[in-house]
Amino acid sequence: MRIELLSNQPQTIAQAQLDAKEELVAQAGALLALRGDFKINTFMRRGREGGKGKMFQAPSKSLFLQSFKAGEEGGTLYLAPALVGNLAQYQMSKYKFIVRHSSYLACDGKIELFVGFESFKAKAGTENSTWLSLVGDGAVLVSGLGGIYPVEVAGEYTVSLEHIVAFENTLKTKVLPKNQLANGAGVFCQFKGEGLLYCQTHRPKAMARRLEHGALPENFKLHRRDQSFKLRT
Q1: Whole-prediction pTM value?
Q2: What is the set of domains in the chain, with CATH numbers?
């Protein structure tokens, strides 16, 4: 499998070339176009609650995925995230990789994907964040809101939880109390050890507001029958 990131600001497109019988598993809706013969399957991966050694995630949390298995002659896939932002490619080998649910775009079909990450369970401010645990060998594509940048952690590194995209499980994590940094504004996570961390430049809520204002002019109206309903911007 050969993946190339095609830069087209403000968003990056991924071009994945698959050889015969290779498989790629992507977030449902990520496919832009394809060339070649593929067997496509849509399925759902659901989180589960469990005891020691199992993923801790509310059962209602789920992820819709699409698998693309190339035929005898292989083929090419073009993928992009739902929101405006850039992509990064990570090559998994021996470490578990933890990815934010909304930042996962695709991975090699040989990689196992689970919904849930025990260390962020029931921590203050993290109940609305869903995390994926990836295990295996192969390429992973992650997306970031706005820009995405890697950080080689060696020692200690603290970052806002909303800006975390993905990280290697060699890093130890600790969610800090809300009032410990930034006068209570937001939740921060402290990483210790050595490993790779990916961060994004924009926070989800702020990015959504920015996109909303750009897409809905102030004088935009919806007309239904004889009444006019002004959208709130």
Answers
A1: 0.80
A2: 2-206 (3.60.160.10)
